[in-house]
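Support request, please re-run this one:
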Amino acid sequence: MYEVDFAYPARPNVIIFKGFSITIDAGKSTAFVGQSGSGKSTIIGLIERFYDPLSGVIKIDGRDIRSYHLKSLRNQIALVSQEPTLFSGTIRENIAYGVLASEEAANVHSFISALKDGYDTWCGDKGLQLSRGQKQRITIARALLKNPGVVSLDKATSALDSQSEKLVQEALERVMVGRTSVVVAHRLSTIQNCDTIVVLDKGK
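Re-run finished. Output below.
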């Protein structure tokens, strides 16, 4: 990110970033911490192109992300957010017939195998029959199918209890190995193994 200016369209007078620049090292993990409103999640939104900056440039592998087809860009990025979303269907359908390697990396295979119907277990509306931690691990397995070069974690464990957090965190650390990872978190346990920790304060 270089000399990025940004404000949300709904609040154009509230400047989030003004001349903000940062380099996120390829193949490394970079964590962003700071108070609410400091711009942490905005960075992920800009990388995903949910929004474009008012000025400045954001590059991946030296290429302006605006030059990518949007679908192509997002296929390179796996986003795991605070609220895992599953559709009504079986676990198998939610993971989209993924290979076993992705399910094992996501710490999901053992608990699915223990279910009465295994991968054919019906998740119900938005996966309501599963715990939040189980849903999050299925979301991670689904993200792995793309074999993404970039992993974005937006408060991915913040709503989990300590036991679920441990399992999900182990899964996330496997996912992050060798990949460029952008981590937004409130809990120290989520970021303690990151290569770089950036403290944001009012967009700086």
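The domain at 24-49+76-200 is CATH 3.40.50.300 (Rossmann fold). The helical segments are 40-47, 70-75, 91-95, 100-105, 109-114, 132-144, 162-176, 188-191.
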